[in-house]
Amino acid sequence: MPDTRAAMRLWGRLFADIWQQSRGRLLVWVLGTGLVTAGTLAQTELLKRVVDRAFAASVSGGELALLAGAAVLFAALRGVGGYGQMISLSVAGTRAVSTLQKQVVARLIGADLAYLQARVSTGIVAQVQRDTLLVQNMLGPGLGAVGRDLVTMLALVGWMFWVDWRLSLMTFLALALGALPIRQLGRRAAAHSATLNAEIVRMAARLGQLLQGIRQVKTYRMEGPEVARAWAAMDRTTNAYAGEIHVHALSTPLMELIGGIGLAALILLGGAGLSGAGPGAGTLVAFTSGFVAISLVLRRLAAAMVARRNADAALARLFDLADTAPVIAEAADAVDLPRPQGAICFERVDFGYGDGPATLTGLSLDIPPGAKVGLVGRSGAGKSTLLNLIPRFHDPDAGRILIDGQDIRGVTLSSLRQHVTLVSQESGVFDDTIHANIAYGCPGASRDAVRMAAHAALLDEFIASLPDGYDTAVGEGGARLSGGQRQRLALARAILKDAPILLLDEATASLDSLTERAVQGFLDGFAQGRTTLVVAHRLHSVKDADLILVLDQGRLVEQGTHDALLAKQGIYATLWQGQQ
Ligand SMILES: Nc1ncnc2c1ncn2[C@@H]1O[C@H](COP(=O)(O)OP(=O)(O)O)[C@@H](O)[C@H]1O
Ligand SMILES: [Mg+2]
Question: How far is the CA of 537 from the centre of ligand 1 (A)?
Answer without folding.
Answer: 16
